[in-house]
Structure formats: C-alpha cells, structure tokens
Amino acid sequence: MRLLLVEDERRLSDALSYILKKNNYLVDTAYDGPSGQDMAESNIYDVIILDRMLPGKEGLSILRDLRKQNISTPVLILTAKDEIKDRVEGLDSGADDYLVKPFSTDELLARIRALGRRKNEQIQSSNLKTSLFELDPLNCEVMMNGKIIKLTLKESQLLEYLIRNKGKVITRDQILSKVWGFDSDVDMNNIEIYIYYLRRKLNLKDTGVRIETIRGIGYSFREDNNV
C-alpha cells in the first residue's frame, strides 16, 4: 500500500515515516501544503495522511480541492484541534477519518488499515469496461470476446491507469510514479517495454481502441467509439 504523509513537523514526519515503512508501507512525504497537494493530485496513493495546519496552504483547503477534482483517495486528517466543530468541519470537507494529536502509533496503523480495506473494497467492485474489453484489476485479467487474457501485475496496473484517464495524455513521469513509485530507480525504457507487452497481448489493431504514443511526452488510451 502506498501512502502520502503531509506533515510539516519534521521530527514527527520522520518518525511516522520510519514506523510506516517498518510496517511495510511505501511512504512519500511532503512538508508543506502546496507540495502535498501536487503529490496528492498525482492520484497514485491508497491513503493520504494530511496534517491540518500546514505552511503555504491549510490542510482542509487542500482536501476540498482534491474532492473537487474527483480524487476519492481516503484521507486521514491529523490535527491538534479536538473540538467537535473542528471534527465536523474536517469530515464535511471530505475527510474519511480524523485523528487528534497526540495519538498512539497503534491507533494510527489501525485507522490506516481500515481506510485501506475501504479502498480495496471499492477496487474489487469496480471492473473497468471499454467498448472492446473489460479489465478486472483485482485478478489482473482482461475479458475480451469471451476469452480471458492474463496480465502481470504491472501490466494490469499500467492498463488500469491508462483506462481511468481515458482520452488524457499521461506523461512517462506520471506512469513511472503511479505504477513503480516516486522513489523507483526503474529505467524509463521499462514503460515502453510494458506498453509493447500490452499491445501484443490485447491485439488492438483495427479495433478502434488503442494505446497511442504521444511522442516525447507519454501515452494515451483512446476509443474511436466511446461506450
């Protein structure tokens, strides 16, 4: 599970990041509001842990902007404000959970697990349909013309990302961050290789559905006849 931690208190952020990584989470960190929002808008995270009081831009303002962009990633708000009205304001802004400082790491981990289960339930119930085939991201399978095409995990994640952004141009950097992670040392050429694998497995030639190469930029999933 990939987490984004947006927390300006460096010691707390470093401590939380260490604990989360020790519990086998992939963690990216931001120390101010604008940086945190930029990273959150990449839409590659399973859970976002968002401090309320941040330099540059306040946490709830970031959260409202994310929800306006239809980014539904579960968000856990961290705050020192513990009055009922503050909790209500956070939840009304689109937060999924609210944790008041100071808190125990066991409680934080439990809440992250709960939010992660909620996200997984959404994923399990949401196969992606195109005019030509249906992708089951949970089982890494494509159903096309009554046949099942097995994909590797990376192939499935890449195809899911392209379909969810149908019609948009997705840069190589965005793909690398989403599928392999911000800190990955994977070579950019890997993306071309996996695009080639997908095209070969799906055999999309003359179907009206294509993974288009945008030279010098990235790729785009397109359909001539939208469903």
Any overview of this molecule?
The protein is an alpha/beta fold. The protein has two domains: 2-120, Rossmann fold (3-Layer(aba) Sandwich); 128-223, Orthogonal Bundle (Arc Repressor Mutant, subunit A). The protein has helices at 10-22, 33-40, 59-68, 84-92, 105-124, 153-164, 172-180, 189-202; strands spanning 2-6, 26-30, 47-51, 75-79, 97-100, 128-129, 134-136, 141-144, 147-150, 170-171, 209-214, 218-223. Strands 2-1-3-4-5 form a five-stranded parallel beta sheet, sandwiched between helices. A four-stranded antiparallel beta sheet has the order 6-7-8-9, with helices on one face. Strands 10-12-11 form a three-stranded antiparallel beta sheet. The model has no long low-confidence stretch (mean pLDDT 87).
Layout of secondary structure:
Blueprint: E1 2-6, H1 10-22, E2 26-30, H2 33-40, E3 47-51, H3 59-68, E4 75-79, H4 84-92, E5 97-100, H5 105-124, E6 128-129, E7 134-136, E8 141-144, E9 147-150, H6 153-164, E10 170-171, H7 172-180, H8 189-202, E11 209-214, E12 218-223
Parallel strand pairs: 1-2, 1-3, 3-4, 4-5
Antiparallel strand pairs: 6-7, 7-8, 8-9, 10-12, 11-12
Helix pairs in contact: 2-3, 6-7, 6-8
